[in-house]
Amino acid sequence: MMANPNQTMARSFVQVAAAPGEVAQPLRVVQMEGLAILKIIKHCKEFSPALVTGQLLGLDVGSVLEVTNCFPFPIREEDEELEADGANYQLEMMRCLREVNVDNNTVGWYQSTLLGSFQTVELVETFLNYQENIRRCVCIIYDPSRSNQGVLALKALKLSNSFMDLYRTNNFTGEKLREKNLSWVDIFEEIPIKVSNSVLISAFMSELEADTPVTQCDYDRLQLSTNPFLERNVEFLIECMDDLAVEQQKFQFYYRNLSRQQTQQQTWLQQRRIDNNARKAAGEEPLPEEDPSNPIFKPIPEPSRLDSFLITNQISNYCNQINGVVGQSLSRSYLMKALHDN
Amino acid sequence: MAAEQTVLQFFPSSASLSARVHPLLVFNICDCYVRRPDQAERVIGTLLGSVSADGTVDIRNSYAVPHNESSDQVALDIEYHHNMLLSHQKVNPKEVIVGWYSTGFGLTGGSALIHDFYAREVTNPIHLTVDTGFSSGEASIKAYVSINLSLGDQPLAAQFHEIPLDLRMVEAERVGYDILKTPVVDKLPSDLEGMEASVQRLLALIDDVYKYVDDVVEGRVEPDNNVGRSISDTLALVPKMSPATFDKLLNDRLQDHLLLLYLSSLTRTQLTIAEKLNTAAQIL
């Protein structure tokens, strides 16, 4: 999704020119500590299949965002009182962690997902909320369902700047989108993740775990059965396709209404001109060629394209996942064939 | 004569007690140690987890508790400990206090005091020591329980008794040691790269087995019955089926997968076309 690095560069130059003194370096890498990764995995896994979130703590250093620690949020309740409780919890946790010298800058949040179904309006809104308070923010997505296949399904995402501008002004009409040259691939930007560990930890891990020839990871990867995973993926894909079809229908409806309105306007205008010609011949004042009070001149609101964009993103995500898993599965099948032939 | 018999007693017996450590714990403790205050020698903290029915203590989480230490006394920030405990319980009520940890090698005089404090919070707490200074020359993590030594009704002393500790870290294996062991990893391995590594390891293992068997057959290596047995066990695990059945199975599977691949590619093409059409419709 980092489709256009040149564009981001250009944008940042524009920003630099617009705001002298403030150096805006584009975010290039998210550097995560092993501790944060393990904490995220533990939290997400323990509550799977329920979806959970938590806060990321760390430092913002130039073009690198360091994630050094994190803490989980309790499962969210709808109750208002409890919501205040949640805010208290967050403050309390930050205070406690500061006392033991943990970096206590918020740099974003993490959330678990089911088969990568994370591209929702909520995510976009949460992101903007965070973005308002902190300059640089990132969202880490972890998929516990894929880790059973020996894949570390960790992703760092951010919203692209042009999308955020558009979202703030709430302008998702076709015209605006074309003006900004924004398509569905440009909503999210994926940022490469780097992993770092303190030297002490790497010493401990090397000491505690001698090099084993086989790890759990290998067993998981060579597991032949992938059908349940694929089935659910395809199921989700079909649901998304249905949603997309509904969105498309909305647009068809809108265009049909629009063209009907235009014909109505045309007929009305012609009628008015004929009338006016008649009045002119009779020596009277012509009537105006516009009538704002007439309902046929009321503009029909254009449906927002946000939903269909997000759904499209979702679909392409599922397709990628299916392709990836099938690719692996094919190589496993051939491996099995080779073993059997021997 | 035997009426005044006094018995030296150990409480409680720790026959079936053992502990299992989640890899997160090692990371957390090391991180806290790295971030300890300047003057502090060691880090002390609370261990959270659960006790299963068979007496295995599953240590899953931890947090550091600030403390002050002078020559003969230890002051623990009890309020901090309680606040943190409440916060953790909000997220995961199933994790309760199971003991405490301290960095450094072995036990010190202060250990008994802190242990007494934790013994009031939970019965029979575990004391975990993590040798972050590598003072014994290796990374040693040890777990202890306290055993009260009493003479009759008179408590004499508390004795720390080492209990077995399970350090197998399946979770860490899932993540992959490659990224946990080295100080810096530039890029997370992608699906296919991981697969490649696994297949390579498998091939290396098969080669090893071949070599061993050849060596034994040639008489270069002393045969080991155990190894031979496990090789034959493994070979027996390969299901016996006729080549025709196997081919059918394999082909069906390949066709299923290719169909899926085709479908997903078709969908993607559709998306691209839809995108183009949308743009075209806007221009009109």
TrEMBL record, chain A:
GO cellular component: eukaryotic 43S preinitiation complex; eukaryotic 48S preinitiation complex; eukaryotic translation initiation factor 3 complex
MPN domain boundaries: 30-163
The organism's place on the tree of life at top rank: Eukaryota
Upper classification of the organism: Eukaryota, Viridiplantae, Streptophyta, Embryophyta, Tracheophyta
Gene expressing this chain: TIF3H1
Chain's role: Component of the eukaryotic translation initiation factor 3 (eIF-3) complex, which is involved in protein synthesis of a specialized repertoire of mRNAs and, together with other initiation factors, stimulates binding of mRNA and methionyl-tRNAi to the 40S ribosome. The eIF-3 complex specifically targets and initiates translation of a subset of mRNAs involved in cell proliferation.
Protein name: Eukaryotic translation initiation factor 3 subunit H
Assembly and interaction partners: Component of the eukaryotic translation initiation factor 3 (eIF-3) complex.
UniProt keyword Cytoplasm, yes or no: yes
InterPro entries per UniProt: eIF3h, eIF3h_C, JAMM/MPN+_dom, JAMM_MPN+_peptidase_M67A, MPN
From TrEMBL, chain B:
Keyword tRNA processing included in the entry's annotation: no
Record-annotated MPN domain positions: 19-150
Tagged with keyword Lipid biosynthesis: no
Quaternary structure (record): Component of the eukaryotic translation initiation factor 3 (eIF-3) complex.
Family: Belongs to the eIF-3 subunit F family.
Function: Component of the eukaryotic translation initiation factor 3 (eIF-3) complex, which is involved in protein synthesis of a specialized repertoire of mRNAs and, together with other initiation factors, stimulates binding of mRNA and methionyl-tRNAi to the 40S ribosome. The eIF-3 complex specifically targets and initiates translation of a subset of mRNAs involved in cell proliferation.
Protein name according to UniProt: Eukaryotic translation initiation factor 3 subunit F
Species this protein is from: Acorus calamus (Sweet flag)
